[in-house]
Structure formats: C-alpha cells, structure tokens
Amino acid sequence: MIVLNSPARGSSILAVLVLTSLTAACSGSDRRTAAAEPASVESRRAAMENESKKMPPARAPGEERTPLQGTGEVPQQLLAIFQDDLARRALVKHDAITVLSATEHQWPDGSLGCPQPGMMYTQMIVPGYRVVLGAGGNRYAYHSDRRGNFVVCSNGMPFKPVKEQVKGESPAE
Hints:
The chain has about 170 residues and is of the alpha+beta class. About 30% of the residues lie in helices and about 20% in strands.
C-alpha cells in the first residue's frame, strides 16, 4: 500500500506516469516509416518554394505596410517634426537648424536607446531612427521609432517633446 502524505511524493509519481505514457506513445510504428526514407534535396527545395509563394499574413484594417528591410533614409515628415520640436526647444528659427546626421537604427528596447531611471520598457527590438540636429552651436540627438514617437537624448537622459504653448499660459508639466 502506497501512502501519499506529502505533495512531493504525489508529483514524483505523477511525473513517472506521464513519462511512461509518453515513452509508450513515441515507440509506435510511425517513427520507423519516417526514418526509413529521408527527403531528397529536390523535395525540400520544392517545399521551400511552396512556402514562399503563400499569401502574406493578413493585416489589421488601417495598419500600414512597413518594409522588413529599411531604406536607411529618415522620412521627411519625421525630420520636419524634429525640426519643429528643436525650434521650440532651442528658441531658434527653422533656418538656423542643420541636420548633422540621420540614420535608421534598431533600438534594443522601448526606451529608444535612452532609458529613464525607474521606468520599464518593452523588451523587444524597436526599428526606428537616430537624427542629430544642430542649432546655436549645440547638438541634439533625436531617437524615434517608425511611428513618430521620439525622445531627445542628452547625456543618456531622455527629454520629452516640447509642446506648443499658448501665449500667457504657464508650461504644464
């Protein structure tokens, strides 16, 4: 007679039963027929071509198609957003802003390469851009994703976008 007076014994007996049933299921005749004849190179190539000809995955309505391989160019609309932000931030005119560098970038997580202490970020690669603008003798590094979300990264610290302010109102933070 087996007495189960602890949860550890019960789980170990259950594990033995599961392993026994899996071993019995895997020792069937299907394994012998699959190992008898390996697939030829031609059949594997044909299978790969058929897979590549399948339809692309369905997208949600309104979802933009973004190419898997980037072009390496920063969209002009995004550059304009960065220049508008810098004009407000540095209190300069658009003519005084120069683009020092603009590259496509793969950020390691949702912090866009500029994490704020105490914050948690999405842990996945985020495709985006790194743009360095110059104004008034200073350099401003803009880190963004492809959707236009961005931070200004200065000395490893992120700064949020500058919002338009109505004359006479105090800045809200």
